[in-house]
Amino acid sequence: EWRGEYIKKQDIAKKMVDPKLAEPLVKELTELSRKIEDKDREIQRVFNDEGSKAVGQVYDHIKSVVDRVAQVNGYHVVFAYPDFSSPEEKGTPQSKEMQLRPAAAQPFYVAPQVDITKMVVQYLNEWYKAPGEIPADALNPPAGGLVTPTGGQQK
Predict the structure, then answer these.
(1) Across all residues in the chain, what is the average pLDDT?
(2) What gap in Å lies between CA 148 and CA 146, rounded to an integer?
(3) What integer is the mean pLDDT of 96-120?
(4) Average pLDDT for residues 41-51, to the nearest whole number?
(5) Is the pLDDT of residue 43 over 70?
(6) pLDDT of residue 155
(7) I need a surface site. Which of 4, 71, 111, 123 has the fewest CB within 10 A?
(8) Are 142 and 148 spatial neighbours (Cβ–Cβ below 8 Å)?
(9) Structure-model confidence comparison of residues 100 and 131, the more confident one
(10) Are residues 42 and 76 in contact, defined by beta-carbon separation less than 8 angstroms?
(11) Are 135 and 129 spatial neighbours (Cβ–Cβ below 8 Å)?
(12) In this predicted model, what pLDDT tens digit does every residue of 130-143 receive, in sequence order?
């Protein structure tokens, strides 16, 4: 409605020959233009908020199902991989590029026994005692080899 009103007033303003008579109309056009822009921003914000909620909900649903399926079937890692949604999309350069990016395959589920974070932190703390102080043997593993996440030795 506001856009239609704006167009009508703009057409009237273009036809006016006396700039002084057009001033109030130009002021109305400016105010109307700002109202339209404000409403557009508000609508865009609502769309973004609602879209984010929907994507979050879809993600949560998929994630809970994948976690349960992985646990029930004894999977250690499940990757999320963006694939083509149609044969037409398969041929586009953008789709091919998407699949080659480093983030193309992301772990979507990782079993706790696969997580080596604690072991990495342990060795970092042992091998690198303090900032700026690196032991001479820092790049050499301990004599018995590294301890694996399950407690075994790795040579």
Answers:
(1) 80
(2) 6
(3) 77
(4) 93
(5) yes
(6) 45
(7) 4
(8) no
(9) 100
(10) no
(11) yes
(12) 656 655 555 555 55
Phi, psi values for residue 130, rounded to 5°: -150, 155
Distance of CA 7 to the CA centre of its chain: 39
Q: 3-state class of 92 per DSSP?
A: coil
Place of tokens 């072991």: 119
User: Which tokens sit at 122?
Assistant: 């342990």
Contact 16, 22 (CB under 8 A): yes
Query: In this model, does residue 150 exceed pLDDT 90?
Result: no
Distance of CA 73 to the CA centre of its chain: 29
**Rounded Cα–Cα distance for residues 149 and 76 (Å):** 13
User: Cα–Cα distance between 146 and 155 in angstroms, integer?
Assistant: 7
**103 vs 16, residue with greater confidence:** 16
Residues contacting 107, CB < 8 A, separation 6+: 77, 78, 79, 80
Between residues 135 and 77, the one the model is more confident about: 77
- Locate tokens 């109307």: which residue? 32
List alpha helices for the chain, DSSP H.
2-15, 19-73, 87-90, 93-100, 117-127
Single-letter code of the amino acid located at 61: H
* Residue-by-residue DSSP string for 34-52: HHHHHHHHHHHHHHHHHHH
Task: Give the torsion through C-alpha atoms of 93, 99, 100, 105, to 10 deg.
Answer: 170
